[in-house]
Design brief:
Elements lengths: L1 E2 L6 H8 L6 E2 L1 H19 L24 H12 L3 E4 L2 H15 L8 H13 L2 E2 L2 E3 L8 H11 L4 E4 L2 E4 H8 L10 H6 L3 H31 L9 H5 L4 H13 L18 H4 L1 H22 L8 E3 L4 E3 L7 H29 L22 H17 L21 H36 L8 H13 L10 H12 L2 H10 L4
Parallel strand pairs: 1-2
Antiparallel strand pairs: 3-5, 4-6, 6-7, 8-9
Helix pairs in contact: 1-4, 1-9, 3-6, 4-5, 4-9, 9-11, 9-13, 9-14, 9-16, 9-17, 11-13, 13-14, 14-15, 14-16, 15-16, 16-18, 17-19
Amino acid sequence: MIVNGNNLSIEDVARVAIKGEKVELSAESKEKIEHSRRYVENMIERGEVVYGVTTGFGKFCNVVVSREDVKKLQINLIRSHSVGVGDYFPEEVVRAMMLLRINALAKGYSGVRLSTLMTLVEMLNKGVTPLVPCQGSLGASGDLVPLAHMVLVMLGEGEAIYEGKVLPGGRALELAGIKPLVLEAKEGLALVNGTQAMSAIGCIALVEAFNLSKAADICGALTFEALNGIVDAFDEKIHTARPHPGQVECARNMARLIEGSTLVTRQGELKVQDAYALRCIPQVHGATKDALRHVRHVLEIEINSATDNPLIFPDEEQVISGGNFHGQPVAINMDYMGIAVSELANISERRIERLVNPYLNEGLPAFLTKEGGLNSGLMISQYTAAALVSENKTLASPASVDSIPSSANQEDHVSMGTIAARKAMMIVENTRNVLAIELLCAAQAIDLRFEKMGDKGSLGKGTALAYEAVRELVAAVEEDRVLSGDVKILSELIRSGELVKRVENEIGPLY
């Protein structure tokens, strides 16, 4: 993949971070990087006072550092800022972080040497992945703490994963044949000052969120059939009368998924209206689809931006201090994504309740077991879904409205964007598990529905494929058994994209 600082997509990030695609800097980027670096070196030679180059950081911005200490200033920055705590980020998040930092520096506004950037490129391509603690970033002045831990390994310090083993950073570089970096003026600051941690988490979470949006339609359609849903709710006329794009698209998805089903009903045939959890699937799922598209728009601007400080404009012979490191655009949208994805879980749990509740499930056995009392059936699966949904409600409380001043009030408003991104990723995982529980319950309900009908009838074109995918992996629940393993298997079916792929291969792309 050619990286030039300008046209990275969310899918590109996933290809590199998850699938391991190699990257290469464009020739134009190399020229810009070298042009910018020459200006920095000339500026140092002239003895100019520039923030973070010949001064301290944060509140120390007015402390001038001698030319002899310029290099030491940069290494001190990396070591002093490596104060992360908590669990380590998953490898794919760190790889995404490395790619995004490469892409930002490739724009040529940061003043680093080309050789410095090539060290990071080489680490990414050879699979040297720094261990980066997930807690410690305020999301303004950039993701200083996580990025500092990333840079430690470039210096031969810290720890990294290489070929599946956790190693000292220097040893990992040695085994990969990479020479440790010696920082020059401006480079430490250029490497740690940016929004790449929160953006990396956001990209990885968003890729799965788009997959969950499609999977939620599939799960909802299977439940819809199990409960003899009224298909009129998906009539195109209703949705063109209120043409939110996501709503219109979801209604089309639902109509295509259940096409040919003999389990669905028409208005007034068995009942006049369905409950909202069935009837309003397009309105609820559709709002999430629209939200995710907006988040993509913001993230794709961010991951193709220069977010460090100060920025170098060599053609204008200017070095300008600003605030592009401030994560507020990402922070707000990570909160937005968390809220949007949590709604997929909210309505899914309500559908699960309708499947297992004998007063709501259109004549199916209580808790979807034929010998209730002796067996609890799928009763407690709804409990787990309810617990996950409740946890999501707590996680969906926005982080971006919080701010705690830092650096003696020099940095007096921060975004908490990395916290927002981490919470959004947790919501994505919880929602995937709720949808897995819905798949488990819906397939069980379908079995019981067909049995009640004397095995007559058929599922829709799309839902039949989803049902088959479930039954290839998980057997029907004839009597009580441990179900956590089944949920895990179905969660992986969703996470891998295989559920969506199986359906789309037959009926065409879902929206």
